[in-house]
Fold:
Amino acid sequence: MYALSEKGERIRAMFGSIAPRYDFLNRLLSLGIDRRWRRFAVGKIGVSGSGKVLDVATGTGDVALEIASQTAPSLEIVGIDFCKEMVDLGKVKVAGSRFAGRISLQVAPCEDIPFPDQTFDAATISFGIRNVVDRPAGLAEMHRVLKGGGRVVILEFSTPTLPVFKQLYHFYFLKVLPKIGGMFSRMSAYQYLPDSVLEFPSRDEFKGMMSQVGFQNVQHFDLTGGIATVYLGVKKAS
Structure:
């Protein structure tokens, strides 16, 4: 079994501690905009009809459910996450949905995806790649399990490019968000969030990382003034 680094274990434990409030705080702190970002990202997976899609860092299953809502009933969705507490909550959510028969969730890290080569027609990861300690390994694993011609769609927080908007964003992200998060959950977790976003590679650096593991036609789409970014890459057709 894959052994997380000390940093990875700390991150996993942090997410486990905030799991019960995770969905509520996502809606509150993003003013509900995160739903629109997920819909946009899922719209880029490019799978129609039957097939199999992997949702990495699935958390409580929001993206897996969104994939099911946008795709044919014959499409199967598999979600993995390194945090058992998140997966347990996701299983309850999925079981109570109309998509229960199409979605399965299990505990596994991005750096060690427990499926054979060329299993999936597409792969997604939303707000999770910045929490992957060994990002090149995680990206390489997603590339490995994709079929030739399959897409990876990555949704992640970004730093806005417009100066005035960037200043307002940093004030909210660094000063306001941790305090609101701390009212309902662990403040340290919501101090980690802005720190992890600010430490994340630039758009061009991250696209370069995707290209280095084999993804082609790598591009990005900024959302809501650059607060979030969707990255898209394609595995070379066999």
About this structure: The mean pLDDT is 90. The chain has one domain: 6-159+201-235. The longest strand covers residues 146-157.
